[in-house]
Amino acid sequence: MKPILLDTRLRLDRIRAARQVIDPIYLDTPQYECDALGRRLGCAVTVKLETANPVRSFKGRGTELVASQLTEQGRTAVVCASAGNLGQALAWSGRRRGLEVTVVAPRSAPAAKLDRIRALGAELELVAGDFEAARERAVSLARERDVRLVEDSLDIETCEGAATIGLELASRAAPVDAVLIALGGGAMATGVGFVVKSLLPGVEVICVQPAGAPAMTRSWHERRVVTTESADTIADGVAGRYPIAAVLDDLLEVADDAVLVQEESIVAGMRLLLEHAGLVVEPSAALGVAAVLEDRDRFAGRHVATVVCGSNVDMDAYRRWVRV
Ligand SMILES: Cc1ncc(COP(=O)(O)O)c(C=O)c1O
Question: Of 125, 150, 175, which closes a domain?
């Protein structure tokens, strides 16, 4: 079947080519139907597991592209703002290539993420406030030092890297009915959504965000950038407040729906992933399961895929939430 043409910044040929650049350790991740979880949720559930790699999240796919491009350009340093996972992934990709990586992160980010960024040899600058404060500081730091700023979801490589997950999902012998994707800045949802919609237009692409950090979801529904004053969620990986217009445009083209879920459902999702799939995940990775829990009728008897996109969580917080 010929791919459907979608009007976004993404292109299938570039995403296919990205697979040649990304370290294979991030590619062809496990995807399997998890019977026990499906029985509990009342629908078939395919888990796409993005946590069994050196940085325990999908972000390595994008940082591999960014870092290899910087090396080709002869650059030696790079700066990014991060809630934790992009920074860790960029530190990993940069270290292998001898790049000096500086990550600006909120002081409140999980210690598990911050410790790993440092352990991977990156310079870590912590700021008061949330991810948006880190983003502002990273912009000025990159300008002061005259080095490349990696902007997650805006820089096309971050979307293309995530989009390679879509190629793998689309290669399943039998397509699923819906793909549930955690929505933060939008790199993953626009990337995966683009590939799924291009190759399997009948598959529903559903983005999931916490009700406590709804900026991108509200923007998608109102078809314009909507910012919020604050974000209040345990899902630190998706807690942005300022959606990027170009990313929203892409999301409008590829997503069929964007839904919000409650904190209790995120915690219940984490618990179900532990009990029925044996997976310890960070809150953002439980958003898909949370969406099914909140709208069982919508998914009853259907087959959904959910991207289990990260497992960098402080164990004390995890035990408190999941009560293990
Ligand atoms: C574990 C996890 N899930 C979801 C997201 C959201 O992804 P995106 O910002 O590409 O929308 C992130 C972002 O860092 C993340 O780390």
Answer: 150
